[in-house]
Amino acid sequence: MIEVLIIEDDKRIADIHKRFIEKIEGFQVVGSANTGSEAKDWIQTLKPQLILLDVYLPDMRGTELMAFIQDESPESDIIFITAASETDIVKKAFRGGVFDYILKPLTFDRFKESLLTYHQKRSSLEKQGSLDEDSIKLLWNKSLSVPSEQSVTPKGIDPNTMARIKRKLADCSSGMTAEEMGAACGMSRSTARRYLEHLVSEQSAVAELLYGTIGRPERRYFPRP
């Protein structure tokens, strides 16, 4: 049984991760942390085999926590589950040796694919003796799962709603947050965010993090020039 620690500041999302894990055989949630400092305590105590890590925590970035994990629990592997798609953050994660990098909004298919691939790789590496070249190549090619077309495109994308969101975004040169888009289109913030992230994934929009004087950074969406 692979022991999993969830590090996610949004308790609702952490609960979704936990329910997803309960549907996948071979994994068990052993703890959940909402801040970086709380996560450090869990990591030192549990030494979990797998850590599901968000980038934006209230007291630090997940990329900063990677160094602590490598020092205190070097056998722990990391899968990022985050809305952060900025190149510098992805680059830090890649160079830090994370197993996978999953963008929110999360689908169960993408989540399951990543965990099953991880399970397969870990099981192969725990075998005694040595591996042949084909086995090593297979492991390396699967060290970062490539999502299928079905999992890249979120379910429930309505073409008419998408067209309306595109028009709203195109008319707003200063960009819009998911909350603003939801209010403008009469939908929830999470639904608006799902559509906006889909626009980013198909390169029809770009997202930037804007830092205010207080609070967490704000993710703002702009039409691609």
Give a structural overview.
The chain has 225 residues and is α/β, with parallel strands linked by helices. It folds into 2 domains: 2-147, Response regulator (Rossmann fold); 159-223, Arc Repressor Mutant, subunit A, CATH 1.10.10. Helix content is 48%, strand content 17%. It contains 10 helices and 7 strands. Helix 2 runs parallel beside helix 3, helix 8 packs across helix 10 and helix 9 crosses helix 10. The protein is globular and about 60 Å long. The model is unreliable at 142-153 (pLDDT under 50).
What is the distance, rounded to the nearest whole angstrom, between the alpha carbons of the first and last residues? 48 Å
What is the mean pLDDT? Answer: 86
**Tally of DSSP β-strands:** 7
Return residue spans where pLDDT drops below 50 for at least 5 consecutive residues: 142-153
Structural class: alpha/beta
Q: How large, in whole angstroms, is the Cα Rg?
A: 19 Å
Sheet having the most strands? 5 strands, parallel
Overall CATH class of the largest domain: Alpha Beta
CATH architecture assignment name of the largest domain: 3-Layer(aba) Sandwich
Q: Give helix % range.
A: 40-55%
User: What is the count of distinct domains?
Assistant: 2
